[in-house]
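To: structure subgroup
Subject: Chain for Friday's discussion

All,

I'm putting the inputs and outputs inline so they're searchable in the archive.
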Amino acid sequence: METYIILMEMTEKGLDEIHKIPEFVDSLNKKLKKKGMELKGFYKVMGEIDYVAIIESQNDVDALSAVMAIGKSKYFSTTTLKGYAMLEMKKSLDIYESDFA
């Protein structure tokens, strides 16, 4: 499974309907599970970013569908990052050292 970090900023609609966000997250979680994805966490944070979600998906295409679902809610504008586990980083470093160093 691949890891995706979704940074979200509230929109006007999100602020107006903030009381509906927990219900939206529950619904999103159920839909992701049906598609074989997992919502690892959905957090309200303080600072320039308002919310952070972490999802796991089989591939970029499925992850993109989840990000589009979040955007379609019109509660948030999103920025998505793909995360790499340290084991993947180690493999990349090994490739770098053998092929590029």
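Points worth raising on Friday:
The beta strands are 2-10, 38-44, 51-57, 76-83.
Residues 21-34 form the longest helix (14 residues).

D.
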